[in-house]
Design brief:
The structure is a single chain. The protein has about 400 residues and is α/β, with parallel strands linked by helices. It has two domains: about 130 residues, Alpha-Beta Complex (Aspartate Aminotransferase, domain 1); about 230 residues, Type I PLP-dependent aspartate aminotransferase-like (Major domain) (Aspartate Aminotransferase, domain 2). Helix content is about 40%, strand content about 15%. The chain has 15 helices and 15 strands. The strands form four sheets. The chain has a seven-stranded mixed sheet, sandwiched between helices. A four-stranded antiparallel sheet has the order 11-12-15-14. A two-stranded parallel sheet has the order 1-13. A hairpin with a 7-residue loop joins β11 and β12. α3 packs antiparallel against α12, α4 runs parallel beside α12 and α5 packs parallel to α6. The longest helix is centred in the last third of the chain and has 25 residues.
Length: about 400
Protein backbone atom coordinates (compact mmCIF):
# COMPACT_ATOMS: atom_id res chain seq x y z
CA UNK A 1 0.00 0.00 0.00
CA UNK A 2 1.00 3.64 -0.34
CA UNK A 3 2.06 5.50 2.81
CA UNK A 4 1.84 9.25 3.36
CA UNK A 5 4.78 10.41 5.45
CA UNK A 6 3.68 14.02 5.00
CA UNK A 7 0.62 13.35 7.17
CA UNK A 8 0.54 15.40 10.36
CA UNK A 9 -0.59 13.26 13.29
CA UNK A 10 -1.40 14.98 16.56
CA UNK A 11 0.54 13.03 19.18
CA UNK A 12 -0.26 15.24 22.13
CA UNK A 13 -2.27 13.76 25.00
CA UNK A 14 -1.32 10.21 23.96
CA UNK A 15 1.19 9.66 26.79
CA UNK A 16 3.92 10.25 24.23
CA UNK A 17 7.31 10.71 25.86
CA UNK A 18 8.43 12.69 22.84
CA UNK A 19 5.51 15.14 22.84
CA UNK A 20 3.80 15.08 26.23
CA UNK A 21 6.92 14.79 28.39
CA UNK A 22 9.12 17.23 26.49
CA UNK A 23 9.07 19.84 29.25
CA UNK A 24 10.29 17.43 31.90
CA UNK A 25 12.95 16.01 29.63
CA UNK A 26 14.45 19.11 28.00
CA UNK A 27 13.18 21.95 30.18
CA UNK A 28 10.74 23.68 27.83
CA UNK A 29 7.23 22.35 27.29
CA UNK A 30 6.78 24.76 24.35
CA UNK A 31 9.70 23.33 22.39
CA UNK A 32 8.97 21.49 19.14
CA UNK A 33 9.91 17.85 19.85
CA UNK A 34 12.76 16.74 17.57
CA UNK A 35 14.72 14.78 20.13
CA UNK A 36 13.94 11.21 21.30
CA UNK A 37 14.38 8.42 18.76
CA UNK A 38 10.86 7.65 17.63
CA UNK A 39 9.31 9.04 14.47
CA UNK A 40 6.10 10.97 13.93
CA UNK A 41 4.96 8.66 11.14
CA UNK A 42 1.96 6.38 11.28
CA UNK A 43 3.19 2.80 11.66
CA UNK A 44 2.46 0.23 8.91
CA UNK A 45 -1.14 -0.83 8.41
CA UNK A 46 -0.52 -4.58 8.94
CA UNK A 47 0.83 -3.76 12.41
CA UNK A 48 -2.23 -1.61 13.15
CA UNK A 49 -4.49 -4.41 11.96
CA UNK A 50 -2.88 -7.13 14.06
CA UNK A 51 -2.89 -4.97 17.20
CA UNK A 52 -6.56 -4.11 16.66
CA UNK A 53 -7.45 -7.75 16.13
CA UNK A 54 -5.64 -8.80 19.27
CA UNK A 55 -7.22 -5.96 21.27
CA UNK A 56 -10.70 -6.94 20.12
CA UNK A 57 -10.25 -10.41 21.61
CA UNK A 58 -10.73 -8.63 24.97
CA UNK A 59 -8.75 -11.11 27.08
CA UNK A 60 -5.23 -9.92 27.81
CA UNK A 61 -3.71 -12.83 29.67
CA UNK A 62 -0.10 -13.97 29.80
CA UNK A 63 1.36 -14.61 26.32
CA UNK A 64 4.37 -16.68 25.28
CA UNK A 65 6.90 -16.42 22.47
CA UNK A 66 5.60 -18.34 19.46
CA UNK A 67 7.93 -19.90 16.85
CA UNK A 68 6.87 -17.28 14.29
CA UNK A 69 8.86 -14.72 16.29
CA UNK A 70 12.11 -16.53 15.49
CA UNK A 71 11.33 -17.29 11.86
CA UNK A 72 10.26 -13.70 11.22
CA UNK A 73 13.62 -12.55 12.60
CA UNK A 74 15.70 -15.00 10.60
CA UNK A 75 13.83 -14.35 7.34
CA UNK A 76 14.12 -10.58 7.71
CA UNK A 77 17.83 -10.55 8.52
CA UNK A 78 18.63 -12.92 5.67
CA UNK A 79 16.62 -10.93 3.13
CA UNK A 80 17.73 -7.45 4.19
CA UNK A 81 21.29 -8.13 5.36
CA UNK A 82 22.36 -11.47 3.90
CA UNK A 83 23.09 -13.27 7.17
CA UNK A 84 21.75 -16.80 7.63
CA UNK A 85 20.59 -17.31 11.22
CA UNK A 86 19.52 -20.50 12.95
CA UNK A 87 16.12 -19.79 14.57
CA UNK A 88 17.38 -21.45 17.75
CA UNK A 89 19.85 -18.60 18.17
CA UNK A 90 17.10 -15.99 18.56
CA UNK A 91 16.10 -14.88 22.06
CA UNK A 92 13.14 -12.60 22.83
CA UNK A 93 13.81 -9.43 24.82
CA UNK A 94 11.50 -6.60 25.78
CA UNK A 95 14.07 -4.18 24.37
CA UNK A 96 17.70 -3.84 23.46
CA UNK A 97 18.57 -1.65 26.45
CA UNK A 98 17.70 -4.42 28.94
CA UNK A 99 20.11 -6.67 27.04
CA UNK A 100 22.99 -4.26 27.67
CA UNK A 101 22.34 -4.46 31.41
CA UNK A 102 21.79 -8.21 31.36
CA UNK A 103 25.04 -8.85 29.47
CA UNK A 104 26.98 -6.64 31.89
CA UNK A 105 25.52 -8.55 34.83
CA UNK A 106 26.07 -11.98 33.30
CA UNK A 107 29.62 -11.57 31.96
CA UNK A 108 31.34 -9.05 34.23
CA UNK A 109 31.88 -8.32 37.89
CA UNK A 110 31.94 -4.98 39.73
CA UNK A 111 35.12 -3.16 38.79
CA UNK A 112 35.46 -4.83 35.38
CA UNK A 113 35.69 -2.65 32.28
CA UNK A 114 33.37 -2.43 29.29
CA UNK A 115 34.60 -0.76 26.11
CA UNK A 116 32.38 1.74 24.30
CA UNK A 117 33.04 4.28 21.53
CA UNK A 118 31.87 7.74 22.51
CA UNK A 119 30.06 9.82 21.51
CA UNK A 120 27.58 6.96 21.60
CA UNK A 121 24.06 5.97 22.62
CA UNK A 122 23.92 6.93 26.29
CA UNK A 123 22.29 3.73 27.67
CA UNK A 124 25.60 1.99 26.95
CA UNK A 125 27.18 4.05 29.69
CA UNK A 126 24.20 3.72 32.01
CA UNK A 127 24.32 -0.08 31.78
CA UNK A 128 27.97 -0.04 32.77
CA UNK A 129 27.98 2.51 35.58
CA UNK A 130 24.60 1.54 37.07
CA UNK A 131 26.02 -1.95 37.60
CA UNK A 132 29.23 -0.69 39.21
CA UNK A 133 31.40 -1.47 36.22
CA UNK A 134 33.88 0.90 34.57
CA UNK A 135 33.58 2.62 31.19
CA UNK A 136 36.63 2.16 28.96
CA UNK A 137 36.15 4.86 26.34
CA UNK A 138 37.64 4.08 22.93
CA UNK A 139 36.60 7.53 21.69
CA UNK A 140 35.93 7.87 17.99
CA UNK A 141 38.24 10.09 15.96
CA UNK A 142 36.52 13.12 14.40
CA UNK A 143 38.46 14.58 11.51
CA UNK A 144 37.37 16.51 8.42
CA UNK A 145 33.71 16.03 9.27
CA UNK A 146 33.87 12.24 9.56
CA UNK A 147 34.22 9.71 12.39
CA UNK A 148 36.60 6.75 12.38
CA UNK A 149 37.77 4.17 14.92
CA UNK A 150 40.99 4.60 16.89
CA UNK A 151 42.22 1.03 16.47
CA UNK A 152 45.47 1.51 18.37
CA UNK A 153 43.56 2.76 21.39
CA UNK A 154 41.04 -0.08 21.04
CA UNK A 155 43.87 -2.62 21.05
CA UNK A 156 45.36 -1.08 24.17
CA UNK A 157 42.05 -1.06 26.02
CA UNK A 158 41.17 -4.60 25.00
CA UNK A 159 44.56 -5.80 26.27
CA UNK A 160 43.65 -4.69 29.80
CA UNK A 161 42.78 -7.80 31.80
CA UNK A 162 39.82 -5.98 33.39
CA UNK A 163 38.13 -5.46 30.00
CA UNK A 164 35.45 -8.09 29.39
CA UNK A 165 32.88 -6.69 26.94
CA UNK A 166 32.79 -4.39 23.91
CA UNK A 167 29.59 -2.55 22.96
CA UNK A 168 29.47 -1.86 19.22
CA UNK A 169 26.88 0.47 17.69
CA UNK A 170 26.39 -0.36 14.00
CA UNK A 171 25.00 1.78 12.42
CA UNK A 172 26.33 4.22 14.95
CA UNK A 173 24.01 6.41 17.00
CA UNK A 174 24.46 9.40 17.03
CA UNK A 175 27.26 9.96 14.48
CA UNK A 176 25.52 8.06 11.68
CA UNK A 177 28.41 5.86 10.52
CA UNK A 178 27.80 2.53 8.83
CA UNK A 179 30.97 0.63 9.60
CA UNK A 180 32.70 -1.00 6.64
CA UNK A 181 33.65 -4.65 6.43
CA UNK A 182 37.30 -3.74 6.94
CA UNK A 183 36.53 -1.68 10.05
CA UNK A 184 34.34 -4.43 11.49
CA UNK A 185 36.98 -7.10 10.89
CA UNK A 186 39.63 -5.06 12.68
CA UNK A 187 37.38 -4.55 15.71
CA UNK A 188 36.32 -8.20 15.77
CA UNK A 189 39.90 -9.49 15.51
CA UNK A 190 41.01 -7.30 18.41
CA UNK A 191 38.16 -8.61 20.55
CA UNK A 192 38.91 -12.23 19.65
CA UNK A 193 42.60 -11.78 20.39
CA UNK A 194 41.89 -10.49 23.89
CA UNK A 195 38.80 -12.65 24.62
CA UNK A 196 36.41 -9.69 24.71
CA UNK A 197 32.76 -10.57 24.03
CA UNK A 198 31.05 -8.22 21.57
CA UNK A 199 27.51 -6.90 21.87
CA UNK A 200 26.50 -5.42 18.52
CA UNK A 201 23.55 -3.02 18.63
CA UNK A 202 22.17 -3.16 15.08
CA UNK A 203 18.77 -1.62 15.77
CA UNK A 204 19.24 1.01 13.02
CA UNK A 205 20.47 -1.52 10.45
CA UNK A 206 17.36 -1.22 8.26
CA UNK A 207 17.68 2.56 8.03
CA UNK A 208 20.80 2.77 5.86
CA UNK A 209 20.89 5.75 3.51
CA UNK A 210 22.50 7.05 0.32
CA UNK A 211 23.79 3.76 -1.06
CA UNK A 212 25.59 2.54 2.04
CA UNK A 213 25.22 -1.11 3.09
CA UNK A 214 24.85 -2.54 6.55
CA UNK A 215 27.03 -5.56 7.33
CA UNK A 216 26.17 -7.65 10.42
CA UNK A 217 29.51 -8.15 12.11
CA UNK A 218 28.68 -11.80 12.81
CA UNK A 219 28.14 -12.48 9.10
CA UNK A 220 31.82 -11.89 8.31
CA UNK A 221 33.35 -14.91 10.03
CA UNK A 222 32.08 -17.85 12.07
CA UNK A 223 34.63 -16.96 14.74
CA UNK A 224 33.06 -13.52 15.13
CA UNK A 225 29.63 -15.10 15.18
CA UNK A 226 30.54 -17.26 18.16
CA UNK A 227 31.87 -14.24 20.05
CA UNK A 228 29.01 -11.82 19.40
CA UNK A 229 25.51 -11.05 20.66
CA UNK A 230 23.62 -9.15 17.94
CA UNK A 231 20.59 -7.02 18.80
CA UNK A 232 17.73 -6.39 16.35
CA UNK A 233 14.30 -4.82 16.67
CA UNK A 234 11.62 -3.48 14.32
CA UNK A 235 10.99 -0.58 16.69
CA UNK A 236 12.92 2.15 14.85
CA UNK A 237 12.18 0.85 11.37
CA UNK A 238 8.42 0.72 11.80
CA UNK A 239 7.89 3.16 14.71
CA UNK A 240 6.66 0.58 17.21
CA UNK A 241 9.08 1.16 20.10
CA UNK A 242 6.24 1.33 22.61
CA UNK A 243 5.25 -2.28 21.90
CA UNK A 244 8.51 -3.57 23.44
CA UNK A 245 9.84 -6.42 21.33
CA UNK A 246 13.40 -7.26 20.23
CA UNK A 247 15.22 -10.22 18.75
CA UNK A 248 18.64 -11.03 20.21
CA UNK A 249 20.78 -13.34 18.08
CA UNK A 250 23.19 -15.45 20.15
CA UNK A 251 24.89 -18.22 18.12
CA UNK A 252 27.21 -19.35 20.93
CA UNK A 253 25.21 -21.77 23.13
CA UNK A 254 27.26 -21.01 26.24
CA UNK A 255 26.75 -17.26 25.91
CA UNK A 256 23.06 -17.83 25.15
CA UNK A 257 22.64 -20.01 28.22
CA UNK A 258 24.20 -17.40 30.49
CA UNK A 259 22.16 -14.58 28.93
CA UNK A 260 18.89 -16.46 29.34
CA UNK A 261 19.78 -17.42 32.92
CA UNK A 262 20.38 -13.77 33.78
CA UNK A 263 17.09 -12.80 32.14
CA UNK A 264 15.41 -15.38 34.34
CA UNK A 265 17.12 -14.09 37.49
CA UNK A 266 16.04 -10.57 36.62
CA UNK A 267 12.49 -11.67 35.78
CA UNK A 268 12.74 -9.40 32.74
CA UNK A 269 11.64 -11.54 29.80
CA UNK A 270 7.83 -11.34 29.82
CA UNK A 271 6.33 -9.50 26.85
CA UNK A 272 2.99 -7.74 26.56
CA UNK A 273 0.26 -9.38 24.47
CA UNK A 274 0.79 -7.06 21.49
CA UNK A 275 4.58 -7.31 21.26
CA UNK A 276 5.09 -10.53 19.32
CA UNK A 277 2.08 -10.18 16.95
CA UNK A 278 3.25 -6.68 16.00
CA UNK A 279 6.87 -7.81 15.69
CA UNK A 280 5.95 -10.67 13.34
CA UNK A 281 3.62 -8.51 11.24
CA UNK A 282 6.29 -5.81 10.88
CA UNK A 283 8.97 -8.18 9.63
CA UNK A 284 6.70 -10.38 7.52
CA UNK A 285 4.30 -7.87 5.94
CA UNK A 286 5.78 -4.38 6.00
CA UNK A 287 8.81 -4.25 3.73
CA UNK A 288 6.90 -1.93 1.38
CA UNK A 289 6.67 0.59 4.23
CA UNK A 290 10.45 0.61 4.64
CA UNK A 291 11.05 0.95 0.90
CA UNK A 292 8.92 4.11 0.90
CA UNK A 293 10.36 5.43 4.16
CA UNK A 294 14.03 5.37 3.12
CA UNK A 295 13.81 7.86 0.23
CA UNK A 296 11.66 10.13 2.39
CA UNK A 297 14.35 10.19 5.07
CA UNK A 298 17.03 10.79 2.44
CA UNK A 299 15.05 13.75 1.10
CA UNK A 300 14.69 15.16 4.62
CA UNK A 301 18.42 14.76 5.24
CA UNK A 302 19.25 16.45 1.93
CA UNK A 303 16.87 19.30 2.70
CA UNK A 304 18.47 19.75 6.14
CA UNK A 305 21.99 19.79 4.69
CA UNK A 306 21.11 22.34 2.01
CA UNK A 307 19.22 24.54 4.47
CA UNK A 308 22.18 24.65 6.83
CA UNK A 309 24.65 25.41 4.05
CA UNK A 310 22.46 28.20 2.67
CA UNK A 311 21.25 29.83 5.88
CA UNK A 312 23.23 28.60 8.89
CA UNK A 313 26.76 27.77 7.71
CA UNK A 314 28.16 27.73 11.26
CA UNK A 315 26.09 24.60 11.90
CA UNK A 316 27.22 21.63 9.84
CA UNK A 317 25.58 18.27 9.25
CA UNK A 318 27.88 15.32 9.80
CA UNK A 319 27.20 13.31 6.64
CA UNK A 320 24.59 10.69 7.61
CA UNK A 321 25.08 7.15 6.37
CA UNK A 322 22.12 5.77 8.33
CA UNK A 323 19.29 6.56 10.77
CA UNK A 324 16.89 9.50 11.01
CA UNK A 325 19.00 11.00 13.82
CA UNK A 326 21.17 13.80 12.47
CA UNK A 327 24.40 14.82 14.23
CA UNK A 328 24.98 18.57 13.95
CA UNK A 329 28.44 20.06 14.45
CA UNK A 330 27.92 23.46 16.08
CA UNK A 331 31.55 24.12 17.01
CA UNK A 332 31.83 27.18 14.76
CA UNK A 333 29.05 28.93 16.69
CA UNK A 334 31.27 29.17 19.75
CA UNK A 335 28.49 27.63 21.85
CA UNK A 336 28.93 24.42 23.80
CA UNK A 337 27.20 22.37 26.48
CA UNK A 338 24.62 24.34 28.45
CA UNK A 339 24.90 27.41 26.20
CA UNK A 340 24.30 25.34 23.08
CA UNK A 341 21.34 23.56 24.63
CA UNK A 342 19.90 26.92 25.71
CA UNK A 343 20.17 28.25 22.16
CA UNK A 344 18.17 25.36 20.71
CA UNK A 345 15.70 24.53 23.46
CA UNK A 346 14.99 27.86 25.17
CA UNK A 347 15.65 30.43 22.46
CA UNK A 348 14.79 28.53 19.28
CA UNK A 349 12.16 26.41 21.05
CA UNK A 350 13.29 23.23 19.32
CA UNK A 351 13.82 20.19 21.51
CA UNK A 352 17.02 18.44 20.46
CA UNK A 353 19.17 15.88 22.23
CA UNK A 354 22.23 17.42 23.85
CA UNK A 355 25.44 16.20 22.31
CA UNK A 356 27.24 15.91 25.64
CA UNK A 357 24.62 13.38 26.68
CA UNK A 358 26.44 10.95 24.39
CA UNK A 359 29.76 11.67 26.06
CA UNK A 360 31.96 14.72 26.65
CA UNK A 361 33.13 14.57 23.03
CA UNK A 362 29.65 15.73 22.01
CA UNK A 363 29.66 19.06 23.85
CA UNK A 364 29.77 21.04 20.58
CA UNK A 365 27.04 18.95 18.93
CA UNK A 366 23.31 18.29 19.07
CA UNK A 367 21.25 15.40 17.70
CA UNK A 368 18.21 16.33 15.61
CA UNK A 369 15.43 13.85 14.75
CA UNK A 370 14.25 14.22 11.13
CA UNK A 371 11.85 11.26 11.36
CA UNK A 372 8.95 13.65 10.85
CA UNK A 373 6.86 15.22 8.08
CA UNK A 374 8.74 17.76 5.99
CA UNK A 375 6.57 20.59 7.28
CA UNK A 376 7.64 19.77 10.86
CA UNK A 377 11.29 19.82 9.82
CA UNK A 378 10.78 23.14 8.03
CA UNK A 379 9.06 24.61 11.09
CA UNK A 380 11.90 23.57 13.37
CA UNK A 381 14.60 24.90 11.05
CA UNK A 382 12.82 28.24 10.65
CA UNK A 383 12.65 28.61 14.43
CA UNK A 384 16.36 27.89 14.72
CA UNK A 385 17.16 30.26 11.84
CA UNK A 386 15.32 33.13 13.50
CA UNK A 387 17.56 32.90 16.56
CA UNK A 388 20.66 32.13 14.50
CA UNK A 389 20.30 35.42 12.61
CA UNK A 390 20.05 37.31 15.87
CA UNK A 391 23.23 35.80 17.32
CA UNK A 392 25.50 34.95 14.42
Amino acid sequence: MQYNFDEIINRRHTQSSKWDNVGARVGNSDALPMWVADTDFRCPQPVVDVVKARAEHAVYGYPFVVPEFRTATTNWVKKRHGWEIDPNWVVFATGIVPVFNTMVQAFTRPGDEVIIQRPVYHPFGYAIEDNDRVISDNSLIYRDGRYTVDFEDLERRAANSKAKLFFLCNPHNPVGRVWTGEELRKMAEICLKHQIIMISDEIHSDLVLFGHRHIPISSLDERYQMNTVTCYAPSKTFNIAGLRGSGIVVPNPEIRKKLEAQFKRNRSIQQNVFAVPAYVAAYEECEDYLEQLLPYLEDNATYLEQFLKSHMPKIKLVAPEATYLMWLDCSETGLSGDALAHFFVQESKVAVSRGDGFGPQGADFVRLNIGCPRTTLEEGLQQILEQYRKQF
